[in-house]
Amino acid sequence: MSFCRISKGLELNAGFSVKMPDTWTPIFDLSDKAKVQQINNKAESYIDAVLSGIKERSVGNHMQGVVPYAVRLFMDPIYNNERKTQHFSVSEKCIGCSLCAQKCPVQAIQMKDKKPVWVKDQCAACLRCLHHCPTFA
Questions:
Q1: Would the pTM count as exceeding 0.85?
Q2: Exposure string (b/e) for 106-123, b if CB count within 10 Å is 16 or more?
Q3: pLDDT of 86-98, one tens digit each?
């Protein structure tokens, strides 16, 4: 299969995907609990299909809802701009617990005077800092 190559030059035999609720809050609204539950329920059946495909060593592109290349060309510059840490700040609700700094997968946050400071120009934009914040500061 040639739809994807791993950096070490190995060819990927199969690809699978599962649509989950998107937690990237700058764009997606998760306040509709029924909609989120509906997406989660649908994901369960996809997960079962992925597990079956892996167990059966299925070969092929089994990706569901993959973003078309043309859309990625448009969205990548927007995403790369959103990754700039200059866009991040913390509100007065911050209690200085440092969970944001501890949980950041790219170590882009350090605590100074019990407040988070972004020390890298870009981060993964995963918003793990926000999702682990007990006060959503």
A1: no
A2: eebbeeeeeebebeeeeb
A3: 988 999 999 999 9
Looking at 3.30.70.20, 1.10.10.10, 3.40.1160.10, 3.30.530.20, the CATH number of the domain 88-132 comes to 3.30.70.20
For 32-64, the pLDDT digits (tens) are 788 888 888 888 888 888 888 889 888 877 676
Q: How do 14-16 and 60-62 pair as beta strands?
A: parallel
Domain ranges in the chain with CATH number 3.30.70.20: 88-132
